[in-house]
């Protein structure tokens, strides 16, 4: 296994773990640690989690295009998390949610880069070997 394959594998695991952590933080932020003035609600939970769940297949099957779209989608979640963390009603859990979305974005972009490099190197090996 080459170093780029090891890095891509590490980034894939980091991305999957942070994806699950982010979904968990969205769920816990809706049901358990609710900011002041909000009530737990199934509709709010669905609005927060379903758009991210749409990318689950692509994340776990390492589909680069799907993961790239996930990065675009979580930028909206990043904006929401920053707004909630800087709110006067912020609770400690808002910072965890912010950290989870940043971890997911960073690990997903790193995975895209390293996986693309690995695929390009394998393609170059295949053409040079012929």
Task: Report on the architecture of this protein.
There is one protein chain. Helices cover about 80% and strands about 0% of the residues. With about 130 residues, the protein is mostly helical. The radius of gyration is 17 Å and the shape is elongated. The protein starts with a helix and ends with a helix.
Record keyword descriptors for this entry.
5 helices, 130 residues, single chain
Outline the biggest β-sheet.
none
Order of helices and strands: HHHHH
Strand content: under 5%
The Rg value, from CA coordinates, equals 17 Å
- Overall geometry comes to elongated
SSE blueprint and pairings:
Elements: H1 3-31, H2 42-53, H3 56-60, H4 64-85, H5 92-128
Helix pairs in contact: 1-2, 1-5, 4-5
How would you briefly describe this protein structure?
The chain is mainly α and 130 residues long.
